[in-house]
Specification:
Keywords: 4Fe-4S, Iron, Iron-sulfur, Metal-binding, Molybdenum, Oxidoreductase, Signal. The protein is α/β, with parallel strands linked by helices and 964 residues long. Helix 6 runs parallel beside helix 17 and helix 7 packs across helix 13. The longest helix has 17 residues. The protein starts with 5 loop residues before the first helix and ends with a strand.
Length: 964
């Protein structure tokens, strides 16, 4: 027996993790990190941040992804990126759940009959390349791509003599692009600059949710709406059939059926022209406007309201009009987009708030007619490649058309509906494991880089196509004539950063920054003049004739977008901002329409169109127009994964292949027998019941100085009064952490709540437990109806208030709920015995109890934040103000020998918020922003102040624009 050295013994007893840790290409550690032979490029216990680009939707926000011990644990916005400026939406926050999804495709799969069998990469490459070399015709359908990967896709199809390459996006803004093609000769989606806009007129464009670039637009909107002394918040009007989150943020909501929206747009434009309230005269369009209005009577609206809207819009300094929805198609959608474009032209918005010089990348996405030709061309000799797209779910008839191809090869991360049709399923890296680039608009070139090592046996999509072409004897070549071995080499050559020390330094600088862009964007280009020759509008389709006829209004969820993220538990459990319903979708029906059909709230109903049908539970509400049935997109998958399969109904089944659903898809609604799945609500009450939880004040009252001051006691020793305080004051040693929540800026998007899940290891518990009231969210953003307004909701971000006289602390028999030296209501998990007295005594109901031991399906456990304890059954938990972030900042300041700076500690909710609702800091710092707001803002108030809990969270009242 040979001798074993001490080093060898320790190496072996360190466990199998050493093999993983020292495997440089993976850079993934799933076990204890050995100290004797530490892995390269990993410093145990240190955080590393990688700059990359979010690909959860086509907006292209910049991201910083935190990596700890070889594991990506948290996604945050890149503060320097011009699109999102450090913020992220709920979908961006959920990107890590896409990386660690237990239902990801992890091996090469081959379909034999109805079964999928595991194969090797070599077998797949040999089979597919042989088919290509023997004359297989190539057709490629991909999600929207730009930059190096787009060049590879074009080169791949071209090298096999094909021009059949389309970028498929279910939301392609076809009507908007068609209108701009007709008027300006530019079939593009311009950049809409809401920053500085003082009046926004939205025709069913939910720009705070899924339309355009929602994070950028949310930031700009909240900045325009934010209260500043001496300035008036921007105004907004919304016209549409459903009270969406965006609509509820408007000053005016004009409810109109889908059929009426183009008529309203035409009528508003006609008022502008008749009154002479324009800067540019689109006079030749008057006959077309008159013809449309005469062919379809205006809805029962006060003519004076139209005049008021027209006056407000045209008298604004920087107005802008938006048209939606983004999936609109057909003549009604195009007519609306034409009228909206002319409204922008009339008020001089073209070239200012509407910038055609920076079109969105979505302008490259395929139109319905192009998709029709693509699918019709497929035949037995074709090899159809589908990259990260799911037309079998989103497009009626696509599944049958794709099966006509001789071989379907799917490249993606999920076994979705399209992957289930493929002969070969090739697992690709997620965007967080990939090299690449994405340009959402000219001048913004975002880089993508792996934020951790590969989790499974996957490969980059570009690398797969480059390898297949090489094996088929037709290697791909760049524009310079070289044949890079992989996408990274292609990307470096494309950017001129291959070879040499200087090029490597420039490459590393670009990786640290997250891409390349101008710090000061160029001014908007001169707006094009419209071509009005032969301008005409279409007569609207006939409205519902029978009692059971309705107009379908599919709407895109801020959480699920077009359904591609439906398998993520964080998003399924994140409530809809208006209804606060989770885990499913439902049919919104007006009570009058329901009464005619004998349908009651909660009944199971069927919607039937010429394309298909679905069943879903009914919610009766006046928030939807009387002749309209509204239902959310993104649910109803038959594949994708455990969290998505069988949840809700697929609305795309009702839409025909040319996406005519944008404004008018006639449907029949009927009650059907059977037990409907009850919608799961996590907030049962949206009325304030005279409790003044979410306070507001009219702008005129605030300006006059007559706003009644709110009773207010600081959570400091000076806020205690011996005559009515039961508990003694607290003396805080160095800090008294506090937060200010500006309700005027909150748009209700819920990004903060999803960020809290990600940062604090909050578990997803599933629909059954949520239905039983066992939800675990530390931060909730429930909607409350604005008093006196049936069409307005506002949102109250609510987490632990960290009271100075906390009712939860004295009732705990084991001192698990304690007040620490910095003012936090700390929860000591290993003391807690689960009496739940603290929850009973909390007036804000922000504590959560673990009723069951929850399993983190592997590899979701790899995403857990190592700085935060994972709780178990029988333990109470709650918001901690992200105490781990507080400690990290304190340790960093101590190592550098300095004091903490104001704004250096940023909780996860404040970091991700697109609207900049939250301000966090130290009340003992007189110069801190949180101190100035808490002590001096005239809008300040404490929630349930009469209970004398002295919260550390101060709310700032909403400011309501006075209705003209």
């Amino acid at each position: 027996m040979s001798e074993m050295s001490r080093r060898t013994f320790l190496w072996i007893t360190g466990g199998s993790s050493i093999a993983l840790a020292t495997d440089t290409p993976r850079k993934l550690v799933n076990k204890l990190i050995p100290k004797v032979t530490p892995p390269e490029e990993i410093s145990p216990g240190d955080w590393t941040y990688y700059a990359t680009t979010c690909r959860e939707c086509p907006a292209g926000c910049g991201m910083h992804v935190a990596n700890r011990d070889g594991r990506a644990t948290k996604a945050e916005g890149n503060p320097g990126h011009p699109v999102n400026r450090g913020a992220l939406c709920p979908r961006g926050q959920s990107s890590l759940q896409g990386l660690f999804d237990p239902d990801r495709v992890t091996r090469v799969l081959y379909r034999s009959g109805r079964k999928l069998r595991e194969k090797s990469w070599q077998e797949a490459f040999t089979s597919i390349s042989t088919r290509l070399a023997s004359g297989g015709r190539v057709a490629l359908l991909s999600s929207l791509q730009t930059g190096a990967l787009a060049e590879v896709l074009h080169a791949f199809t071209a090298t096999f003599g094909s021009d059949r390459l389309l970028f498929y996006e279910p939301f392609n803004y076809e009507s908007l692009r068609a209108a701009h093609q007709q008027l300006f000769g530019l079939p593009v989606i311009p950049r809409y600059d809401l920053e500085g806009s003082d009046f926004i007129l939205s025709f069913a464009a939910d720009f705070l949710e899924t339309w355009g670039s929602p994070v950028r637009q949310a930031r700009q909107f909240s900045d325009a709406r934010g209260y500043r002394e001496g300035e008036s918040p921007a105004r907004m009007a919304y016209l549409g059939p459903r009270l969406s989150m965006t609509a509820s943020n408007a000053d005016r909501f004009v409810q109109a059926s889908p059929e009426q929206i183009p008529v309203l747009a035409a009528a508003l434009l006609k008022v502008v022209l008749d009154r002479g309230w324009y800067r540019n005269d689109p006079g030749p369009v008057r006959p077309a406007l008159d013809a449309l209005i005469k062919s379809s009577p205006l809805p029962a609206l006060d003519q004076e309201l139209l005049v008021t809207l027209a006056r407000e819009f045209t008298s604004a300094r920087r107005p802008v009009a938006l048209t939606g929805p983004q999936y609109a198609g057909g003549s009604a959608g195009t007519d609306t987009a034409l009228c909206v474009a002319l409204l922008n032209y009339a008020v001089g918005a073209i070239g200012t708030t509407v910038d055609f010089s920076r079109p969105h990348a979505l302008s490259l996405s395929a139109r319905a007619a192009e998709l029709d030709l693509f699918f019709a061309s497929l035949g037995p000799q074709d090899v159809l490649f589908v990259l990260d797209a799911n037309p079998a779910y989103c497009r009626t008839g696509a599944a049958e058309q794709m099966t006509r191809a001789g071989m379907v090869v799917y490249l993606g991360t999920q076994l979705d509906e399209t992957a289930e049709l493929a002969r070969w399923v090739l697992p690709t890296d997620t965007p967080l494991e990939s090299w690449g680039e994405y340009q959402p608009e000219p001048g913004v070139d975002g880089l993508m880089q792996p934020v951790m090592g590969r989790l499974h046996d996957t490969r980059g999509a570009g690398d797969i196509l480059i390898a297949l072409a090489r094996l088929a004897g037709r290697p791909l070549k760049t524009a310079r004539g070289t044949a890079p071995a992989d996408l990274l080499a292609w990307l470096k050559e494309r950017r001129g950063l291959s070879g040499g020390e200087q090029a490597e330094q420039a490459w590393q600088a670009a990786l640290r920054k997250g891409g390349a862009w101008q710090e000061t964007p160029p001014p908007a280009g001169t707006g094009p003049a419209p071509n009005l020759a032969g301008f005409s509008l279409h007569a609207p389709l006939p409205g519902p004739a029978r009692a059971e006829d309705v107009e379908l209004w599919p709407w895109a969820s801020i959480m699920l977008y077009d359904g591609r993220q439906a398998n993520r538990g964080w998003l399924q459990e994140a409530p809809d901002p208006i209804t606060f319903i989770v885990w499913g979708n439902w049919i919104d029906l007006h009570p009058k329409k329901a009464a005619l059909l004998g349908i009651e709230d909660g009944d199971l109903a069927q919607l039937t169109s010429h394309a298909g049908s679905l069943r879903a539970p009914v919610r009766l509400t006046r928030e939807v127009e009387e002749r309209t049935a509204a239902i959310g997109l993104g649910q109803g998958h038959s594949a994708l994964g455990q969290n998505a399969r069988g949840v809700g109904s697929n609305v795309f089944l009702l839409l025909d292949a040319v996406q005519r659903a944008g404004f008018f898809t006639p449907c029949r609604v009927s009650r059907v027998a059977g037990n409907a799945p009850r919608p799961i609500r996590t907030a049962l009450q949206r009325e304030q019941l005279h409790r003044d939880l979410l306070q507001s004040v009219p702008l005129s009252v605030l300006r006059s100085g007559n706003a009644p001051p709110e009773a207010f006691d600081l959570p400091l020793p000076e806020g205690y009064h011996e005559d009515h305080d039961l508990y003694p004051r607290h003396e805080h040693l160095k800090h008294r952490w506090a937060m200010v929540v500006d309700l005027q800026r909150c748009i209700g998007c819920g990004a903060c709540a999803v960020a809290c899940y990600a940062e604090n290891n909050v578990p997803v518990i599933g629909p059954e437990l949520v239905a039983d009231g066992r939800e675990m969210a530390w931060l909730r953003v429930p909607p409350y109806r604005v008093p006196g307004s049936p069409w307005r909701y506002a949102w109250l971000p609510l987490h632990c208030q960290h009271c100075d006289a906390a009712p939860c602390e004295p009732v705990c028999p084991v001192f698990a709920a304690v007040h620490n030296e910095e003012g936090l209501n700390a929860q000591i998990y290993n003391r807690c015995i689960g009496t739940r007295y603290c929850s009973n005594n909390c007036p804000y109901k922000v504590r959560r109890f673990n009723w069951v031991n929850l399993e983190w399906r592997k590899p979701l456990d790899l995403q857990l934040n190592p700085e935060v304890t994972v709780r178990q059954r029988g333990v109470m938990e709650k918001c901690t103000f992200c105490v781990q972030r507080i400690r990290q900042a304190q340790y960093r300041a101590a190592r550098e020998g300095r004091k903490l700076k104001d704004g250096e500690v940023v909780p996860a909710c404040a970091q991700t918020c697109p609207a900049r609702v939250f301000t966090f800091g130290d009340l003992l710092d007189p110069g801190a922003q949180v101190t100035r707001l808490t002590r001096g803002d005239p809008r300040r108030y404490h929630l349930l102040h009469e209970l004398n809990t002295k919260p550390a969270v101060t709310f700032l009242r909403r400011v309501e624009n006075d209705v003209v």
